[in-house]
Design brief:
about 50 residues, mainly alpha
């Protein structure tokens, strides 16, 4: 989660790139919420058989 938010901050404010800097807060939320929700989710182990 820290990496996703840090990347957004970097590309919007520290070293602004045109596309991320032009996003509205609502657009940024819409794009990032799935990644932020998936980040803390437990991952299935390879030994569990998959």
């Amino acid at each position: 989660m820290v990496t996703v938010l840090g990347g957004l901050s970097h590309t919007r404010y520290i070293n602004p790139l045109p596309t991320p800097a032009a996003l509205t807060p609502a657009e940024a939320r819409r794009m990032l919420v799935p990644a932020l929700r998936a980040a803390p989710a437990p991952r299935p182990s390879a030994a569990a058989g998959g």
